[in-house]
Predict the 3D structure of the following.
Amino acid sequence: MTTSADSPRGEGTVLLVDDEPVVRTVAQRMLEHLGFEVRVATDGREALDVFREHADSIRLVILDLAMPEIGGEEAFTEMRRIRSDVPVIMSSGYDEQEVSTALAGKGLTAFIQKPYRLAALQESVRAALEEPQSD
C-alpha cells in the first residue's frame, strides 16, 4: 500500500462497522496503514455497544449502511444521540446519491463507495476529520 507523501499520518481511534468480513479486514488494514487504531464491529448492535463503551476516544466512525438487525441509518441516529460531534462516514455499495438523499439533514459527514480504494479512503478520512462538527 502506498500513500501520498504529503498526507499526514492518522492518529486516534476509528470505529469501523461492516458485516462483510473481507471488507472489514481490508479496510482495517488500510486504516492501520494510515496510522489509526481501529476498533471493529460486525453489525449495528455491536457498533453501538463499542461506541457507548469508547465514545470519548473514538475520533471517527466508518459505518456500513446495509447490515442485519440494526442498519447503518439507525446506528448512525443513535450514535448522534450519544455524541453529536463525532464525524461519521457512511459506506455502501449503493449509489452515493441514494444514501445522501436518505440521510440529508441528519449530520452525516461524508460517504464512501465500496469497494474501498486506499486513496479514496484516505481522502474521506482526512476531509471528515478536518470538517468542523456540530455539538
In short: Helices lie at 21-33, 44-54, 72-82, 96-102, 118-130. Confidence is low (pLDDT under 50) at residues 2-6.
